[in-house]
Each structure stands twice: as structure tokens, then as C-alpha cells.
Design a protein that fits this description.
4 helices; DctQ; cell inner membrane; mainly alpha; 2 strands; 3% strand; elongated; transmembrane transporter activity; 195 residues; transmembrane helix; transmembrane
């Protein structure tokens, strides 16, 4: 919904916008692919809920709980939440304080979009470096031999290493997404200046 002024300037009315939900145009090809992948991770949340429902049924009806349900749901929800940051960046649907941003003219908003994207890219690169260190520790033993960090439970899957590796991939994509956003906002800024 968008706020559009009524012919009477003192009484604004709310009208539906014609924009379809989806990635920003400035997010480019990467943003469109991230938007499509969002359905897979949304399905993961639904699968996690079904696994929990199955676990409750098996535990309390048949008194036969599984060893894998808790870690499976934690893994599915964890990777969905990690992907959610990239998804929100491509759609410009992340939470932000817009007190100053909303008071700016369209030109200065575009300038702020460029600066925010650059700062976010730098922050993403810093988190990428931290993720590289985590992945190195989660995938290699101190001796240098390849081994995946495991959960240590009775089932003992390698989900900690998988989640950390997925976080690294998402952080790389997030930095790239912010770089694409910065470049495309900058291109539109140049177009606004000419127009």
C-alpha cells in the first residue's frame, strides 16, 4: 500500500500500488535468481514443520521418538534464516530506520542508496572473512586433514560444517549483491542528474 495525496491536500488516502512484489530492478540478474531460490528455502521451513509434527506424533502416540528430527529442523530453519538476509537485500525488504531517508529528495535518496550499498558491501566482506575462518575450522582438523565438524549428538550429522559453509557462500553472494546494487543505484543516479 502506498500513501497517495487526495485532491484535498489535508486528507491523504491509502491506495493499492501496482507494484508486484519481487526483487529490486537494481538487484539485477542475481536478485532475480535469489528471489526464485527463496521458494526452496520457504519449502524447507514447511518441511521442518512437518518433521516436528511427525516427531510429536511418533513420540507421544507411539512412544518412539526419532534421533534426527531436532537436528534436521534446526538445520532447515538455520539455512533458511541465513538465506533470508540475502533474500531481503535483493528485495529491499530489510528493516531499516528511515527517519532521515524519507525526508530527503529523490536525488539524495539515490545518493544514500549508493552509500548504503557500499557500506553494506564492505560489512558483508568483513563477515565473509570471519566465515572463511569458521569454515576452515569446521572442515579441517588441526593436522590439516579434511574432516567435517559434527554435532556430537547420537545421530551426529555434519550439519555444523554444512551451515558454516552455507553461511560463507551466502556472505559472498550478499557482498556481490550489494556491489550490484551500488553500481545500479549509481547508474540511475547519473541518469537522474542528466534528466
Amino acid at each position: 500500500m502506498a500513501l497517495h495525496p487526495d485532491p484535498d491536500p489535508g486528507s491523504p488516502v491509502i491506495l493499492p500500488t501496482t507494484e508486484l512484489p519481487g526483487p529490486l530492478a537494481e538487484a539485477g540478474w542475481l536478485g532475480r535468481q535469489v528471489d526464485r531460490l527463496g521458494y526452496i528455502f520457504a519449502a524447507g521451513i514447511v518441511i521442518a514443520a512437518l518433521v516436528l509434527l511427525l516427531e510429536v506424533f511418533l513420540r507421544y502416540i507411539f512412544n518412539s521418538p526419532t534421533r534426527w528430527a531436532h537436528e534436521t529442523t534446526t538445520f532447515l530453519c538455520g539455512i533458511a534464516f541465513i538465506f533470508g538476509g540475502l533474500y531481503c537485500a535483493s528485495r529491499n525488504s530489510h528493516i531499516r530506520v528511515v527517519l532521515i531517508y524519507d525526508s530527503l529528495s529523490p536525488y539524495w535518496r539515490r545518493v544514500m542508496d549508493v552509500l548504503i550499498s557500499i557500506v553494506s558491501c564492505i560489512a558483508s566482506l568483513a563477515f565473509t572473512y570471519a566465515a572463511v575462518l569458521m569454515v576452515r575450522n569446521a572442515t579441517f582438523a588441526p593436522s590439516g586433514a579434511f574432516r567435517l565438524e559434527r554435532s556430537g549428538s547420537a545421530w551426529n550429522p555434519p550439519t555444523p560444517a554444512l551451515v558454516k559453509t552455507f553461511l560463507l557462500v551466502v556472505m559472498i553472494l550478499l557482498a556481490l549483491q550489494y556491489l550490484v546494487l551500488a553500481w545500479n543505484h549509481f547508474r540511475r543516479l547519473k541518469g537522474d542528474r542528466r534528466g
